[in-house]
Amino acid sequence: MIKIGIIGVTGFAGLELLKILSLHKDVSLEYFASRSENGKRVGEIYPQLDTVLPNRIESINIERIKGLDAVFLSLPHTVSMEIAKDICDYVKIIDLSADFRLSNVDIYKLWYKKEHLSKALLDKAVYGLTELNRAKIKTASLIANPGCYATSVILPLAPLSDVIDENYIIADSKSGVSGAGRKAKEGLLFCEVNENFKSYSVAQHRHIPEIEETLSSIYEKDVKITFTPHLLPVQRGILSTVYANLKKSVSKNEALSIYRDFYKNDFFIRTKEEMPSLNNVRGTNFCDIGLEIDERNNRIVIVSVIDNMIKGASGQAVQNFNVMFGLKETEGLSPYPYYP
Ligand SMILES: NC(=O)c1ccc[n+]([C@@H]2O[C@H](COP(=O)([O-])OP(=O)(O)OC[C@H]3O[C@@H](n4cnc5c(N)ncnc54)[C@H](OP(=O)(O)O)[C@@H]3O)[C@@H](O)[C@H]2O)c1
Predict the structure, then answer these.
(1) Residue 89 neighbours by CB distance under 10 Å
(2) Which CATH class is domain 2-124?
(3) Where are the domains of the chain?
(4) Rounded to an integer, what distance in angstroms lies between the CA atom of residue 19 and that of residue 23?
């Protein structure tokens, strides 16, 4: 059994990790920790898990982490890198924060307003969009798990390098409220979110450099994107609509074939004839993709859907863990969506 730990278990992504990993057949969940809630039983934080996971949450202890085979850091950015630098020589790390996603320390500072602590660790980190980086993930010791919006935008754009103009890409994304984490914030109050719909961080969201860096590497040229996130009054799920100008004429069937061929070995990516919907992926690690060709304007319009906390965070983290340890990639990840 692989000995694992979760740090930040009191957050939404930490809870998802706890649920997935406690049912994973190759894993021994040895340690889960939190800064502020240690000493409490899991059921005191999450009453729905009271009799299922009776264990107590521990404090964050570097020596304890060093004795594990792998650890999931489900912490805010800047906190993850503090811990990662002390444990990286002892244990494999899957980090859910943004601390290791950008390869350039100056770009990290520009977007996250903080000096990066370790250029050496950044160089070591592998960007964990599993479908695009599987070979590198196999031998990695530090995974930078992608952002939720970034996952929902990069997956539908990755196959299109030969057919779209990389200078005119627009992504318009809508996320459920759990994307902002469990911490109380005024803008996430029921009366602010319910029956409301609004954009935020327009052209300034921190997933922009992550999307641009990853797509530029796939396309082997500089890719720029206009990205607008929105807060959707649902608990979980992201739907991204991506618009791009075509460089050459492509029919809908030809475009679908490009996707089916590109993702032919990827169980979690499903290309659909019809437009996808959140109901079909919520609670799963799937990314469903649908598209139409806007012939009048010579554009392709692609719609992707994911569960922000599964394929957008903890599910993808476990998918990466499975690849790192040579396990079946789907192990622990339920294919059944929460429906109805
Ligand atoms: N939610 C999503 O859909 C999603 C998707 C992709 C990636 N992510 C990323 O995953 C990470 C966790 O997200 P989340 O949504 O689970 O956030 P969250 O619900 O706010 O949870 C944050 C966790 O970090 C801990 N924490 C906060 N500040 C800390 C500090 N200074 N030292 C030690 N622990 C600290 C909290 O523990 P305490 O209870 O002790 O404060 C909590 O367990 C973030 O980096 C986020 O960007 C989230």
Answers:
(1) 8
(2) alpha beta
(3) 2-124, 149-308
(4) 7
Gap between the Cα atoms of 31 and 36, Å rounded: 16
Distance 319 CA to ligand 1 centre (A): 19
DSSP SS3 for 59: coil
- Alpha carbons 101 and 300: distance in angstroms, whole number: 28
Reduce the DSSP state of residue 278 to 3 states and report it.
helix
Return the ∠ at Cα 12 (arms to 6 and 18), rounded to 5°: 40
Q: Which strands, in side-by-side order, build the sheet including 92-95?
A: 27-33, 2-7, 70-73, 92-95, 142-144, 126-127
149-308, which class in CATH?
alpha beta
Decide: 179 in ligand 1 pocket, CB within 6 A: yes
Contact residues for 297 (Cβ-Cβ < 8 A; gap 6+):
none
Q: Collect all residues with Cβ–Cβ distance below 8 Å to 112 and sequence separation of at least 6.
A: 77, 78, 98, 206
Query: Closest Cα to residue 326, out of 26, 22, 8, 21?
Result: 26
Reply yes or no on whether 191 is catalytic: no
Contact between residue 237 and residue 307 where contact means Cβ atoms under 8 Å apart: yes
Tally helices (H) and strands (E) across the chain.
Answer: 12, 13
pTM, two decimal places: 0.97
pLDDT of 325 strictly over 90: yes
Q: What's the rounded mean pLDDT across residues 37-44?
A: 92
Query: What are the tens digits of pLDDT across the range 169-186?
Result: 999 999 999 999 999 999
Crossing angle, helix 148-157 and helix 207-219, to 10 degrees? 30
The finding on whether 10 has its CB within 6 A of some atom of ligand 1 is yes
Picking from 154, 146, 111, 109, the residue whose alpha carbon sits closest to that of residue 126 is: 146
Q: Which residue has the tokens 């695009």?
A: 132
Residue whose CA is at the smallest distance from ligand 1 atom 31 = 79
